[in-house]
Amino acid sequence: MDTAFKGEHLLPGQLGQFFIILSFGSALLAAISYYFAASEKNDPNSSWKRIARYSFFINTISVVGIGVCLFYIIYNHLFEYHYAWEHSSKSLPVYYIISSYWEGQEGSFWLWCFWQAVLGNILVWKAKSWESPVMAVVCLSQALLASMLLGVQVFGARIGSSPFILLRDALDLKASAPIFAARPDLYKNYLTYITDGNGLNPLLQNYWMVIHPPTLFLGFASMVVPFAYAIAGLWQKRYKEWVQPAISYALFAVMVLGTGVIMGSFWAYVSLNFGGFWAWDPVENAALIPWLTLIGAVHVLIVYKNTGHSYFTATFLVLISFILVLYASFLTRSGILGDTSVHAFTDLGMFWHLVVDVVVFLIIAIALITIRWKELPVTKKEEDTYSREFWMFVGAVFMALSCLQLVIVTSIPVWNSIFGTNIAPPNNPVTLYNVFQAGFAVVVTLLMGIAQFLKYKKTDSNRVLITGAVYLVLAAVITSLVVYLSGVYHIRVVFSLVMLGAVYAILSNIKVFTDALKGKIKLAGSAVAHIGFGLILVGAVIAAGTSKVVSINNTGEQYSADFAKRNDPRENIMLYKNQPLKMGDYLVTYVGDSISMPNHYFKVDYKLMGDDGKVKDEFVLKPNSQANRKMGLVSSPDTKHYFLHDLYTHVTMAPIRYEEDDPTGSGGNAHSEANDDQNYDAPVAHEVAVGDTIRFREGYMILTGLDKNAKVENITLGQNDVAVGAQLKVVSNGKIYDAEPIFMVKDKKGYDFARKVEDVGLKLRFSRVLPDKGKVEISVYQQPESKKSYIVMKAIEFPYINFFWSGTIIMVIGFLMSIFRRNKELKTV
Question: Which helix (H) or strand (E) is 723 found in, with range?
Fold first, then answer.
């Protein structure tokens, strides 16, 4: 406990900073030691290697120590630390506290370091003769990552950003709050004014964000391993030997990174409100770019392993894949995408630090290729046109071209920064990416199909042409049916061609899979992965291309000028509470709310109506929203999953308040009793007897009886006092509610106690007893339409989206099968 600043807990931060410095130093020592160990020929037990292993073990302990200290700070709400204050709050449950770990740059760098440490320990155990040169590269990467967390000043320049910086230092409280400069006593007690943290970004408060970033960063971390093998092979002049082990690690990297990308897609689908699963945001592109090149690399590595062809291409694609991971990190962390992406990190002053990270490994790769250029394996004999390796090579080239298009357009802010230009991003980037990437997908999927009919080195051309043509005709027939039935023909022709290619690839690989079941099971992995990828494309084309908005608004209502700027009013309907509305084939009703702070859930009842007017299906969706001071209304959708389609619903407008403005926790629907009548139209008095009916705008009510023994809480009646309750049965929109307003005479004075029927927007008063007429007076207050509980929502139908998700699972299974196969081959070498 620090005595200078009351309430500060400095030990966890000091310990964490010690671990950061130790992790950097130990990683750097391990890299240097492994370098010298790799330079000592024929000495597997050199002292340099022992030093390197001990150093890397210390690095692993240090990285874990950083994570423990940071978790302790966040979990215990030590808001004297800027990272905890900026990214968490006391209201977050534990699983979202875990998410706040990697919301900031420092936490995500730590996550990357952690996975790289895990992989490094596996390599120490499994790499054998490759350990020293491969680990020298991995440890260098680990040292550069650790430097991103240092947060120290060297010759006036800051290196890295520490997660353990104190709030008073990060925000410079004396400068930002002049009262602290004038009142040192208050400054020493600043923590008494910090009651809570900023909290986690509402868009990240989703269970997918607990598992998506760790998976994605495991993918990023694993990309260094095939890169390290390629560097080691060039360095040690073991040009051919590195390929076999690199294939297994490259397969693992593309499997994990691909899974992470799809997880992000699913997070966007279930949590974000842009109405889909992919938006071609620059940050999404940054994760996809290295995946594309490494997929190409895997295929060319297999070509080289089987035929000896395309060594340089295989090496180049492996090397560039990791360089692109580092470049993607630069794009998302340097702040350069701040104007083009809503997901990029803000600049923490590490622009040039991130550039150095890219340049270091780029120079190493270029230098080694240049030095070894004349020694690189070259096959003088050209690949035969009717060989599998030729078309796998062509496919890899198209994957690389696909990646190049993404890099060029995503990097427009970089080109502007380098050349001083002012090139504007595309007006409609989604259409641009869709068309270009669909064109590449057509070629790649057709090649995925035709390559299955080819053998390595040479295949009978007649057999290939006949078999390929038969499957292509079958694919064309199936595609025509799918395109017609799904409505894909309404969109661009290129997407129908993508469908053709995907179906062709699926059919061709099903043939390979069935052959594998007859005794060539080792070939099944690639076929299963290809089938999964084909299904992903089928699902993406149909779901994205034929999705339709169900919530069509034909009233002409714009809701507000601000709403019309951000949304299309014609695609959003307004629902008043408990008032059913026809929406396409559905009858939808906003039936109620529930609050689990900070989320406000809106219950929307759906009834699927048949042609005979009967209900075919009924369910309730609960989209939720938060009123966030920085971001406005932040909504997350809810989705009804059918076998062949999804119904996606999210709220675009709702009268909820900021949490801090609503201490009642009522979500903005609580009102003081003194001003309550202002929320209703002028009351209408009705004189009724028992059994009479009172009609109002949305229904009617019946006075069913008078309760002469009514009681009012906390009020004791005297001998001459009386309380009578009017027993009312309220019927509205097919629902029945009971209400009992009370009229009381106490101490010869009359009082009445109103009762509300919130779902109907009513307040009822038993205002008078009329003994001469044998009646009572019931005053009915109705909320005007403008003050009734309502939501504005958008509903979208995504057909056949399950092909997309199921394809992902099948693709991952295929990758796993391929990894097991390659590992088995590795053991026999």
Answer: strand 722-732
